[in-house]
Write a structure and sequence with these properties.
- The complex is a heterodimer.
- Chain A has eight helices and no strands.
- Chain A has one domain.
- Chain A is mostly helical.
- In chain B, a hairpin with a 4-residue loop joins strand 1 and strand 2.
- In chain B, helix 1 packs antiparallel against helix 4, helix 2 runs parallel beside helix 4 and helix 13 packs antiparallel against helix 18.
- The chains are: A mainly alpha, B mainly alpha.
- Chains A and B meet through helix 4, helix 5, helix 6, helix 7 and helix 8 of A and helix 5, helix 6, helix 8 and helix 9 of B.
């Protein structure tokens, strides 16, 4: 692999981590969704680049899914849901932004140290991509735990999943990548958008999970 | 190819799911559901006559034969229970015919997904199957659409998805470890190939992979720090689903974990996976045992009891060695049978009394003797009293541990005793106190419950030698 190919792949994967960081401090749902769309767009580029470098045409399908489904359809659908639910106000965060960012930095450091240390033998691109993708996964988890709003939790989960797709495409020649990315898309589309948000809205008049907590059987 | 029966246990549920989604009459679909589950079970039994074999995607060996037989047996008995349970839910208007159609189709999809996870020879395929099983159960848990059901389903969905995501990361890492040795492509994800070459894999990568897999699939097993979804999902969904969740789905996730444990065991450079599993199992046992004391909802209570027992099983497999593995396998079988029998009883009780709250239940042995005594027998069994099967398996786990790590055995024993106290304290008034609530007779199907309990009782008194040698064989396989 030439120097340029490596640098471009590195740049794209690094951008994903950066955009994950941007998600941490978005305090409005619209802005969070737009950031997510950007995240998915960069993922699509990254996967397409891997498809080109590895000469693995089936990865273009994964890239197309990332671009069409994750970067365009899902954000648009979530936009509409947010408008319908009338919750385009501020995102509540459980922890302050400063602390969240510091935790995020710590998690990325952890991911880098862990993955770079255990994969000295692997080829450099796969190695760095694994480190980056673990960072994205951990940052996605952080988004999920710091938000209380159902929509932003889903966005956090989707960014986490982008990290997994990055890892799967970086693992050269991994079978079933396309199938797995389709399975994940089905998971997201089918459950989250189709059923849950509408039903939660239907029953609770809010998608704030704190409100759901009140209905816990044990706390009454 | 001699995988015909193996393919059949996948094809029958898949075809049944399609058929059940079409027919409108719930009486017909309930019967068809039972029929499909029975056919799957019969086919699964025929697998014992088939030689072990493996292909690129499917695998049959001594380990998964046991799991498949247990899964399909409980799938079949639960479908019997479900038929009478659903009839009552329709009668009181809690479920609509459309929802029943959906429910039956999902039930078969779940059976398909669990069987697929068990026979998958490809770690990617296994992951997809477990994800599918999670998805279908999420949908079924949220089926009543009450506040609590939706919250439970949401929580289950979020935590289950995170778990499944971590498991995928672990799976990718296993592939990364295998690629330099096995080469690129499908072979590097085929389990039978991995197990023969695992000794040459990079141990550091395998270690990290196992941690992710333990956290990921451990979430689905319901191990202690990751268990938060489990009580809600058990309490709020339809009771047949609680029975299947506790009796089967937790086992399937455990099976995935065991496969990867075997992979690590082959590699001498990798960490021993046992101690990690022992610690998580022990934490689960003690935590769940303590949590039993403050329950107010009967289904939630038995959900915590499931966490406790999964803890014991994971502990036993973590200890390893032929005896502990044997005990773990036996305990898993006994727990699945007993816990689903308990949920069969609880489901009918909740229907008769119209509540799941422990405070509103009382004197069941007087008001509904058959159900009450059935539940009492189930509770005695699950608490681990002799002469029932769980006593024997728990005794084996504790005694085999005693020889190797007395302190661990003492901690485990304390956990089991705390749980026993919690169960008896909470359920004493429910079973033997003053009768409370409506006492209308119910059209219950007692057969599945008593069949399960009879097997558990029989196993506690006498285990047939064929069973023993079969389990011993698998236990030796597990190393």
């Amino acid at each position: 692999m030439g120097r340029l190919e490596f640098d471009i792949a590195h740049l794209l994967a690094g951008s994903l981590v950066l955009i994950s960081f941007m998600m941490l401090y978005q305090d409005r749902l619209y802005a969070l969704l737009n950031t997510y769309a950007l995240h998915a767009g960069v993922l699509a580029l990254s996967v397409a680049w891997q498809a080109f470098v590895q000469q693995a045409p089936h990865l273009y399908i994964t890239a197309l899914i990332a671009l069409g489904f994750k970067a365009i359809i899902i954000p648009l659908a979530l936009h509409r849901i947010i408008v319908r639910l009338g919750i385009h106000r501020e995102v509540e965060t459980a922890v302050g932004f400063g602390l969240t960012m510091l935790t995020g930095i710590g998690l990325v450091a952890l991911a880098m140290v862990l993955m770079l240390r255990i994969t000295p033998g692997a080829d450099p691109l796969a190695r760095e991509d694994l480190a980056f993708s673990l960072s994205v996964v951990l940052l996605g988890l952080l988004v999920m735990v710091t938000r209380r709003n159902a929509v932003s939790q889903v966005v956090g989960f989707m960014s986490l999943e982008n990290g997994l797709v990055l890892a799967a495409t970086a693992a050269k020649g991994m079978p079933l990548v396309v199938e797995i990315s389709i399975a994940f898309s089905v998971l997201i589309a089918f459950i989250v958008i189709g059923i849950f948000l509408f039903r939660i809205r239907e029953r609770f008049d809010t998608v704030d999970l704190q409100a759901l907590d009140r209905f816990r059987g044990e706390r009454r | 190819m001699r995988l015909d029966a193996l393919e059949a246990i996948l094809l029958i549920p898949a075809a049944a799911a399609g058929v059940l989604a079409v027919f409108p009459s719930y009486k017909l679909t309930a019967r068809l559901n039972v029929l499909a589950a029975f056919l799957t079970f019969a086919t699964a039994l025929s697998l014992f006559a088939v030689e072990p074999s493996s292909g690129q995607y499917l695998l049959l060996d001594d380990l998964n034969r046991v799991f498949i037989a247990l899964t399909t047996l409980i799938g079949f008995t639960t479908s019997l229970f479900s038929a009478s349970y659903i009839g009552h839910e329709i009668a009181i208007g809690r479920l609509t015919p459309i929802l029943i159609r959906f429910y039956h189709a999902m039930y078969q999809v779940l059976m398909f997904a669990m069987n697929l996870a068990l026979v998958a020879n490809n770690i990617g395929l296994m992951w997809v199957a477990i994800e599918l099983a999670t998805l279908t159960t999420v949908l079924m848990v949220g089926m009543y659409r009450t506040h609590e059901a939706l919250e439970a389903a949401w929580k289950y969905f979020i935590l289950g998805s995170v778990g499944i995501a971590l498991a995928l990361f672990g799976t990718i890492l296993v592939y990364m470890a295998a690629r330099p040795v096995v080469g690129e492509g499908l072979d590097a994800m085929v389990w039978t190939v991995l197990i023969t070459r695992a000794s040459q894999f990079d141990p550091a990568l395998l270690n990290v992979a196992f941690v992710f897999l333990l956290l990921g699939y451990g979430t689905k097993v319901g191990l202690a720090p990751l268990h938060a979804w489990l009580p809600d999902a058990h309490a709020e969904g339809p009771t047949p689903i609680s029975a299947v969740l506790s009796g089967l789905l937790l086992n399937v996730a455990l099976y995935a974990l065991l496969r990867f444990k075997l992979l690590l065991a082959v590699n001498t450079g990798a960490i021993a996976p046992g101690p990690l599993m022992v610690i998580m199992g022990l934490i689960s046992v003690i935590f769940a045992a303590l949590m039993l004391y403050r329950r107010r909802d009967i289904k939630r209570m038995f959900a915590y009891s499931s966490i406790e027992h999964m803890g014991i099983i994971v502990f036993a497999f973590g200890m390893g060695g032929p005896l502990a593995n044997f005990a773990g396998l036996l305990h898993m079988t006994m727990h699945s049978l007993t816990k689903s029998a308990i949920f069969f009883a609880v489901g009918h009780i909740a229907q008769v009394k119209g509540t799941q709250k422990l405070a509103d239940l009382g004197g069941l042995t007087v008001s509904n003797p058959v159900l009450g005594w059935g539940l009492a027998l189930g509770v005695v069994a699950i608490a681990g009293l002799p002469p029932l099967g769980i006593f024997m398996s728990e005794f084996l786990v504790v005694s085999s541990t005693f020889a190797r790590a007395p302190w661990l055995a003492i901690l485990l024993g304390i956990g089991i005793l705390i749980a026993l106290g919690g169960l008896f304290l909470r359920l004493n008034t429910v079973l033997f106190g003053d009768p409370r609530g409506p006492t209308a007779p119910t059209e219950a199907s007692y057969v599945p419950m008593f069949v399960h309990l009879a097997i558990v009782l029989a196993a506690g008194i006498y285990l047939p030698p064929t069973f023993v040698s079969g389990f011993q064989n698998v236990a030796n396989l597990l190393g």
